[in-house]
Each structure stands twice: as structure tokens, then as C-alpha cells.
Design a protein that fits this description.
Elements (H helix, E strand, L loop, with lengths): L9 H7 L9 H18 L5 E5 L3 H12 L5 E6 L2 H12 L3 E6 L8 H10 L5 E5 L1 E2 L4 E2 L2 H10 L3 E5 L18 E3 L13 E5 L1 H8 L12 H8 L13 H17 L1 H21 L15 E5 L6 H12 L4 E2 L8 E5 L7 H17 L2
Parallel strand pairs: 2-3, 2-4, 4-7, 7-8
Antiparallel strand pairs: 1-9, 5-6, 8-9, 10-12, 11-12
Bound molecules: pyridoxal-5'-phosphate.
Pyridoxal-5'-phosphate (PLP) binds next to helix 3.
């Protein structure tokens, strides 16, 4: 019950143990098409360029930025936690210029402030931000931010690593141009893959580049040569076959449950956790309207040994919860309710463990 990886479904682990076939085997090629169709369902998009990058969420972040920014481009980056900060760092390494808009940790990205910055930077080509900030447990308003980006002729680049499968996310309806996610948060597949999707506007920006992206491995045009669309598939790198089996199985589980049902399960289970924690006198760090159900930031009460409680839970209850990061280190715990780890059983175990820990640790 930390900030990821979440528990992996047993059926997903079982899928991983299937025989490893060739990455250009005709059976594997049709499997890839099916996988990308499942990804389109999960992301709620019709984009033909929708595929999993063979590396974790951070690689999806790098893929979006390295393909869509050219040296010298200006990109507005909203930062309200760890992951927005990383985006700004990658923008710099793409030799582009991040225009940083900062927000207090624990608060969402404020569209009014972003609008001011977009107005002040008419040459900006992109707006990048995080939907679900895992470092604080805060959700931002993707739809409003993407509308602003489009009004200012900017591409929207959205981090959906923790949001996918846990809260409402509708890539096309919300006007997202480029998105990346991860497998080890609410999809409950193992870490190591990053679903990415580009719409036609994003592909047009990529294809108008004066030079190919600095990264050969993450070059979207080379990746689509392998992943399609199109029947002809060229070797780019050896795909992580068994991890892809796992993602396919996890996406099928999500589709069987239904996206809306999965979002509701996260909301309902969060409500149970919230009631239990509040009954114990614990308080949330984030305002109710901005909270992520899948990542609960809880204030460490005064006089409590924050790390001691986490060790106690791990040793006595075999249960992991997360620590605070950056300015929130030592001040909060981060309790994940992601995917397969989002059940009543997890909530009961966590509440029982925490109340024992608070009574027994100094
Ligand atoms: C976990 C996470 C990432 C990075 O994913 P990795 O799989 O650890 O590389 C990026 N953004 C957010 C919001 C995350 O929660």
C-alpha cells in the first residue's frame, strides 16, 4: 500500500510465465494490436499512435518530451510535486527552455496562474503537467488545463502514471495531445512499461522537426515502425515479451471490471479508509476536493516516529506504506489504494496495523 508498485494480480503473474515467443512472430504481432486496442480503451482515445514504451513511467515522460520538443523550444511546466520537477529537468536536457509555474506541494495546478504564464509566453509550444501527483496525493484539472493549452497554440503533455485506472481520465474528450502512464500503479501490472499515446496534433509537431529526436530508443517514428499501425513491422529493439503479456492481462481485467466501475471502486475504498483514519483521529494533508483516492497523504501526528511506524507495519503486518518526499519528508505517510491493492481487505489491514503501531511505537 505504498505509492507503487501495487500488488500484481495473480492472473497477471501467471500470464507472465507463458512461453516467450519471438517479437516478430505473427502471433505476437496480432497480440500487439490487441494490446494497443486495450490501451486505447483504458486511455479513452482513438489515437492510432498508442503503444507501451519498453521501460517504466519515467521513460514515457522522457519519450513525450524528447519527441515533442526541439532545442530552443519553450515549454511551460507546472510543478506541484516531485514529478513536475522531473519534467522540467528533462525539458532542460532536451535543450529546450522550461517556463516553470510552481504551486505549493499539496495543492493542485491552478489554471488561472497557468493562463497568466501562457499569456506572458506567446512563443511557448507546449504545456506539461501531472494529472495525479503521487508525491502529494493531489489531482489537477486536466480538461481545463488542456483547453488553455489549445487556446494558446500549445501542445498539452500529461503525466497519467498514477491516474490511469484509478480516477476518471478521458484523453480525447479532454483534448490531451500527448500522454504517458505506467503499469505498476493502478493497472497492477509489474513495473517496466509505459503506455504512451500521441494524437494527430502531436504527431504533426514531431514530423515537422528539423532534426530527429536526440533519443534513438524513444524516437516515436522508429517505435511505430515496430508497433504499427500498418502490417509491416521492423525490428527496433527486442520487446519485453513476458512483461507485455502481463500488461495485456491487467488491461483485460480492467476492461472486464469496466473503467467506471474501477474508478468507483477506488472512490468507495478511499471513503472507507478515510472514515477509519478519521475515527482514529488522523487527518489528511490534502483538501477533500483535490484528493486522489489511490494515494492518501496522512499527516503524521506530533510526537510520532514516522519511520518507526512504517518499519513496524512492514515487520509486524507485512504491509508497506510510503514516506513523504521533499518538503513533506517526515511530515506525511502516503497510503496507496491502487488497482489490486484497492480492496476492503487492504483497508482493514492498514487500519488495524496503524492503530496497533500508534499504540505501541514510541
Ligand atoms: C511513478 C510515477 C512516475 C514514474 O514512473 P516510474 O515507473 O517510477 O518510472 C512518473 N510520474 C508519476 C506521477 C508517478 O507517480
Amino acid at each position: 500500500m505504498g505509492p507503487g508498485p501495487s500488488d500484481v494480480y495473480p492472473q497477471v503473474l501467471e500470464a507472465m510465465s507463458r512461453p516467450t515467443i519471438g517479437h516478430l512472430d505473427p502471433a505476437f504481432v496480432s497480440f500487439m494490436d490487441e494490446l494497443n486496442e486495450l490501451l486505447r480503451y483504458a486511455l479513452q482515445t482513438e489515437n492510432t499512435v498508442t503503444l507501451p514504451i519498453s521501460a517504466p513511467g519515467s521513460a514515457g515522460m522522457e519519450c513525450c518530451l524528447v519527441n515533442l520538443l526541439e532545442p530552443g523550444d519553450r515549454c511551460v511546466v507546472a510543478i506541484n510535486g516531485v514529478f513536475g520537477g522531473r519534467m522540467a529537468e528533462i525539458v532542460r536536457r532536451c535543450e529546450a527552455h522550461p517556463v516553470v509555474v510552481e504551486f505549493e506541494w499539496g495543492k493542485p495546478v491552478d489554471p488561472n496562474k497557468v493562463e497568466e504564464v501562457l499569456k506572458a509566453n506567446p512563443d511557448a509550444v507546449a504545456l506539461a503537467f501531472v494529472h495525479a501527483e503521487t508525491s502529494t496525493g493531489v489531482r489537477s484539472d486536466v480538461s481545463s488545463l488542456c483547453r488553455l493549452a489549445s487556446e494558446h497554440d500549445c501542445l498539452s503533455i500529461v503525466d497519467a502514471v498514477t491516474s490511469l485506472g484509478g480516477i476518471e481520465l478521458c484523453m480525447d474528450d479532454w483534448g490531451v495531445d500527448a500522454i504517458y502512464s505506467g503499469t505498476q500503479k493502478c493497472l497492477s501490472a509489474p513495473p517496466g512499461l509505459s503506455p504512451v499515446s500521441f494524437n494527430a496534433t502531436a504527431m504533426a509537431k514531431l514530423n515537422a522537426r528539423s532534426a530527429p529526436p536526440q533519443s534513438w530508443f524513444l524516437d516515436m517514428n522508429l517505435l511505430t515502425g515496430y508497433w504499427g499501425p500498418g502490417a509491416k513491422r521492423a525490428y527496433h529493439h527486442t520487446a519485453p515479451i513476458n512483461t507485455l503479456y502481463a500488461l495485456h492481462e491487467a488491461l483485460q481485467i480492467l476492461k472486464q471490471e469496466g473503467l467506471e466501475n474501477a474508478w468507483k471502486r477506488h472512490a468507495d475504498t478511499h471513503q472507507q479508509l478515510r472514515e477509519g483514519l478519521e475515527a482514529m483521529g488522523l487527518e489528511f494533508y490534502v483538501e477533500p476536493a483535490d484528493r486522489l483516492p489511490q494515494l492518501n497523504s496522512v499527516i503524521v501526528p506530533p510526537g510520532i516516529d514516522e519511520a518507526g511506524v512504517r518499519s513496524f507495519l512492514l515487520e509486524q503486518f507485512n504491509l508497506e506504506i510510503g514516506a513523504g518526499l521533499g518538503p513533506l519528508a517526515g511530515k506525511i505517510w502516503r497510503i496507496g489504494l491502487m488497482g489490486a491493492s484497492c480492496t476492503q481487505r487492504h483497508v482493514s489491514l492498514c487500519l488495524q496495523g496503524l492503530s496497533t503501531a500508534l499504540a505501541e511505537t514510541p
